[in-house]
Amino acid sequence: MTDIAPPLIGSPNLRPFTHSLPMALLRAREATMRWFRPHLAAHGLTEQRWRVLRALTSADGPLDVGQVAERTFLLAPSLSRILTDLKGLGLVHRVADTVDRRRTLLSLTDDGRRLVTRVAPESESIYGRIEERFGAERLDSLLADLRELEDALAEIDGGGR
Amino acid sequence: MTDIAPPLIGSPNLRPFTHSLPMALLRAREATMRWFRPHLAAHGLTEQRWRVLRALTSADGPLDVGQVAERTFLLAPSLSRILTDLKGLGLVHRVADTVDRRRTLLSLTDDGRRLVTRVAPESESIYGRIEERFGAERLDSLLADLRELEDALAEIDGGGR
DNA sequence: CCCATATGTATAACATGTGAATCAATGGTG
DNA sequence: CACCATTGATTCACATGTTATACATATGGG
């Protein structure tokens, strides 16, 4: 609408920065995380550690590393390190599966559960404030769009089918 | 649709993962970047290095580090390291401002400009494919929503004004 | 039972994210 | 001019992202 793309003398024809999807997603995410980070940091948590604790909280029983990776959207190397830290902090158990000994089973310790109980309410409250600022229905609609974008871009083949 | 949020026996009342805004933004961004990374990597570029090159390309003249940081949305420490790399690759100039000697002025070398010229077309083409998959108007609308989200969350004060 | 292969995690190596500290240069102010 | 708070950039320290590789255990033929 308002972007009239000046003729850019002598430079390749590149779309303006802030109008590019990756940058827009990055900026939106950063604007969001800025609200959560101080609260999490106050409890000695990073965003990623919190994701792991949440995944284990919402699970019925123990999860293996692969399941947690999938649910937290963390790559295996990052997750491996984070689990070492969380175990060091006494927040998670990390025991080998007795059936398939390649698997490591993960669950919260009592301390882990207590921490989640302390952190969760304020975390939800922050989310509520965000919802309030942007509008609840708009947020739902945005989430739906994001999911559809993700689905639309899921299979990479670029048209060669 | 199919997720009916079970009553979560005995666990804190936490919104399901994939319904949280930070995760949704993260997943959408990753789904997007998956399309660009192979192309950039084929030219020895990371996403962040490419952002710096683009910023310098679209500028009228030299930029100082602060300006590039703002436009690329990179934090100063990351940018500092990336500039060292880009200078090492002979893609950017990095000279002290003669007027205010705290400032470092950045500009593309001829090699840098040539590289941008080689990379840009395919990059635009990928963006075009993404636009095609998701729909151009929908993408515009999504970008507008993301920007408004960013604006809505810009000032952190939680309502205490 | 032995092997080749597949699978689940973990490590290595390098680049970036993030917050804090450092350091040089600048611009008032007395 | 000397002082000092401010600013621009870098560096430090630690956590994570990203890709490639290693390692152990499983699994399915011969």
Short description:
By secondary structure, chain A is mainly alpha-helical. In chain A, 60% of the residues lie in helices and 7% in strands.
Straight-line N-to-C gap of chain A: 34 Å
- Specify the CATH class of the domain at 46-148 in chain A: Mainly Alpha
Spans of at least 5 consecutive residues with low confidence of chain A: none
**Quick one: which chains have the greatest interface?**
A-B, 66 and 65 residues
**Alpha-beta classification of chain A:** mainly alpha
- Oligomer kind: homodimer
State the shape of chain A: globular
Question: Looking at this structure, what is the CATH superfamily of the domain at 46-148 in chain A?
Answer: Winged helix-like DNA-binding domain superfamily/Winged helix DNA-binding domain
Physical arrangement of strands within the biggest beta sheet of chain A: 1-3-2
| Count of helical stretches of chain A | 6
State the order of secondary-structure elements of chain A, H for helix, E for strand. Answer: HHEHHEEHH
> How many beta-strand runs of chain A?
3
